[in-house]
Amino acid sequence: MRIYMDEVINAVCLHMADRRGVQPAEVEVELAWDEEYGYTAEVWVQGRSQFLVESNLLEAIEQYVLRQYGIRAFRSQITLGLDDEIWADIAV
Pfam families given for it (predicted)? Predict the structure, then answer.
């Protein structure tokens, strides 16, 4: 199963909204990749910025796949990749 950038962003939005007690529409996410840090996201909630590392992204994707698709995936089953956009493969 593969989810593409829009769903990865949705996963992070839902995850951060749950953690911060806000509506998902109040969360902004920008995904990135670089050689030094790998996959990251900058998240804005209520005017505050926070950086997430790959393990945070994997946690958000785990929760998203469980809630949206009813699939219990573990971090070891999720692989992030990059072509023109960031995507996640989930081995099920």
Answer: DUF2653
